[in-house]
């Protein structure tokens, strides 16, 4: 293969097909006619000298050569993006982009910081992906973003991992739950209570599971839900208890739609971290956003958690009378 015969246009088309897993979806995303896109991929395969995709049934999969080329295409795009940002920085022009990937629990704090950063730096484009722990680790492994905000990554990963903020996990229930007015609840009393759980791969679920497993308390999983918002509504509807980040239930506690149970051992103290591959050179824009995060985090986190304090105080004074457990 002679790399001089490759074009950036072909590489970007190929990358779109690889990421979309479909020629038709890639053509739609790139606003290209399907025959034009197919021709470019065919010509690229001829330059490489090996097939880039194989079709099994109605789906296409990358070959070994295709996977290698996809990694190279990502590297080329990243290098060109960093070059453009470096040139802008040398000219004293505040331009560039920041690609951020965050946990679902972080979306109650970090998007506001991203918004204020974008307002203060209008020349910098920002993009954000929200997902669970497994999704973010996959993206981190593929180096798809500039910065990641998640819990503790696997210890054997070669990454920079800097503590960002506390992420306390709490037990929430509907206001009518019999335990809503009790204090210092033994966690063993939650055995048999129906729980609404996050999906497998969620860091919140893994943490709560470790806590109850260590006590020998079996969890009764009533539902698995992949959205914190849906879990909150399900708990408010009386279908069970849940363990959620305190940051996610601020509004519901303030409105009295949920109550925080006073369970011994809770809140479970976790931390969010700012993570990126070790050796990765952050672009000027990404480095500026990282500095912004740390400069403004304390106020943002304190403001979010302070809003829930009135609800926690009011709970002890005006919780609804006990009724049958859901």
From TrEMBL:
Keywords: DNA-binding, Transcription, Transcription regulation. InterPro entries: LysR_HTH_N, LysR_subst-bd, WH-like_DNA-bd_sf, WH_DNA-bd_sf. Residues 317-326 have a biased composition (Low complexity). CDD domains: PBP2_CbbR_RubisCO_like. Residues 306-326 are annotated as: Disordered. It holds the Pfam family HTH_1. This is DNA-binding transcriptional LysR family regulator. It comes from Tepidimonas ignava.
């Amino acid at each position: 293969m002679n790399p001089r015969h490759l074009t950036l246009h072909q590489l970007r088309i190929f990358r779109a097909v690889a990421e979309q897993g479909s020629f038709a979806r890639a053509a739609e995303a790139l606003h290209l006619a399907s025959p034009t896109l197919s021709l470019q991929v065919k010509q690229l395969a001829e330059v490489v000298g090996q097939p880039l995709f194989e079709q099994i049934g109605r789906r296409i999969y990358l070959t070994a050569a295709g996977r290698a080329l996809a990694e190279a295409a990502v590297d080329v795009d990243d290098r060109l993006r960093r070059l453009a940002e470096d040139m802008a920085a040398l000219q004293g022009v505040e331009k560039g982009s920041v690609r951020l990937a965050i946990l679902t629990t972080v979306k109650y704090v970090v998007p506001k910081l991203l918004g204020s950063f974008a307002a203060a730096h209008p020349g910098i484009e920002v993009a954000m992906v929200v997902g669970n722990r497994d999704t973010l680790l996959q993206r981190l492994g593929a180096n798809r973003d500039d910065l990641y905000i998640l819990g503790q990554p696997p210890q054997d990963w070669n990454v920079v991992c800097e503590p960002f903020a506390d992420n306390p996990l709490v037990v929430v229930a509907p206001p009518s739950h019999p335990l809503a007015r009790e204090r210092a609840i033994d966690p063993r009393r939650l055995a048999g209570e129906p729980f609404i759980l996050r999906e497998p791969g969620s860091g919140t679920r893994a943490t709560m599971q470790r806590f109850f497993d260590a006590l020998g308390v079996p969890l009764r999983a009533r539902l698995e839900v992949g959205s914190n918002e849906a879990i909150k509504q399900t708990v408010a509807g009386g279908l069970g208890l849940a363990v959620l980040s305190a940051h996610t239930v601020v509004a519901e506690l303030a409105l009295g739609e949920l109550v925080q149970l006073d369970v011994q051992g809770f809140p479970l103290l976790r931390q969010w971290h700012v993570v990126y591959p070790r050796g990765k050179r952050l672009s000027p824009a990404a480095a500026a956003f990282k500095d912004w995060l740390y400069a403004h985090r304390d106020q943002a986190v304190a403001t979010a958690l302070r809003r829930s304090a009135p609800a926690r105080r009011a709970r002890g004074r005006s919780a609804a009378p006990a009724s049958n457990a859901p």
